[in-house]
Amino acid sequence: MADPIGYNKDKANEILNKYDIDLLIASTPVNVFYLTGLPVLHVAPNPILYVLQNQYPFLGLVRRDGEESALIWSLYDSVEEFSWIDPSEVYRVGSLNASKKILARKINEWNLSNKTIGIESFMPFYQYEALKKEFPNAKIVNGDRAFIDMRMVKTEEEVRRIKKSTEIADKAIQACIDATELNVLDTELLQIARRTIVDEGAEGWDHLTQNIGPSDPEAPGTGIPVTPNDIVRFDFGAVWQGYVSDISRGVVVGEIPKKAKEAMDVMIQLQEFCVENIEVGKNSNELYKEAQAYLKSISKRGFYLITGHSIGLECEEAHLFSAIESYDVPFEENMVLDIEVWLSVRGQGLVGIEDCYRVKSKGCERLSSLDKEIVLK
Question: Residue 6 in contact with residue 151, Cβ under 8 Å?
Fold first, then answer.
């Protein structure tokens, strides 16, 4: 049997007691992977479990005491190579109806038919409907926060995977910076990014955000050429053994626009302020308020977007602090978060900086290694 990657039975027991949940059901690929280790992600070496989930769904189940079970496609024979769940607690399904029947049978066997069941907000409707119909006396609650709380603090193995993913994203960005010259197309740069990520051993990319000057960063690959004095921004995340990264850097051929240079100087200072003021035990919302006050002391221009989001199996597991929302939790050792600062600069679109950090007992460890300044070519 495999060893757990991030899952910890005692931590699960503590969190389920905290939220008074008797059974927590994972139905999305990331949470099933977290609970079971089974290769259900879209970047698995063979993502057949992900592809066939519309016919043969997978589920991860954890009871209040932290004990786990799983439902998996009946033809999948390699559970023990990937999962730490006792094989006797892995149940085979051959259809949507079979998955509903087995789930109902196990809930009855565990005497949980009138207890509190936590589900994901993204659970397929047919699964939710079956639970409501079969167990009218059960209390069905949103279990999203329980999953996030389980995943927030990373194990050494999880940190190792995020570090490797970050290293690969760094290399992809550097390869694109090296290739940036006048008239190179965004499509060519994206090809370089993809090739580098795969050649470095990652399963794939989490995101490849890219813009040339004011072009749409969320929709690259339309054949836009690199033009003089426009910031070419790369915001990449690789996926290595299921875990992702998130790094952003910029390069200019010609001269860096003055307003963009001034804004970047402010953003680097602001990011480093956040990093220097993260302390174990300090509330994330408190840090955000401090960062806003510091911003007012160094700049009177523009609306800078400051965000710190937990990163791991997803690029944005939860916003620890941001203008949109704050998770409002104390920082803990071995949290891993991405700290990013953005500003919309006229004629250049979004300009920003972002890096991944690991919270240590004292201070933070930066996982990315690229220089923060915009590269001038």
Answer: yes
Among 1.20.1250.20, 3.40.350.10, 3.40.50.850, 3.40.50.150, name the CATH number for the domain at 9-152.
3.40.350.10
Cα atoms in the 13 Å half-sphere on the side-chain side of 134: 20
Are 12 and 19 a contacting pair, CB within 8 Å?
Answer: no
Farthest-apart Cα atoms in the chain, separation = 70
Q: Torsion angle of alpha carbons 149, 113, 134, 123, nearest 10°? A: 10
User: Considering the chain, what is the average pLDDT of its residues?
Assistant: 96
Band of pLDDT at residue 152, cut at 50, 70 and 90: very high
In the chain, the DSSP E strands lie at 23-26, 59-63, 68-73, 90-93, 116-119, 139-142, 204-212, 231-240, 243-244, 247-252, 305-310, 318-321, 336-345, 349-359, 364-366, 375-376
Fold exhibited by the domain 156-376: Creatine Amidinohydrolase (3.90.230)
Q: Domains of the chain: which residue ranges?
A: 9-152, 156-376
> Of 302 and 368, which is predicted with more confidence?
368
CB contact at 8 A, 251 and 231: yes
* Single-letter code of the amino acid located at 66: G
Please count the other Cβ atoms lying within 10 Å of the Cβ belonging to residue 199: 12
Crossing angle between the packed helical segments 9-19 and 144-152, to the nearest 10 degrees: 140
Phi and psi of 341, rounded to 5°?
A: -135, 135
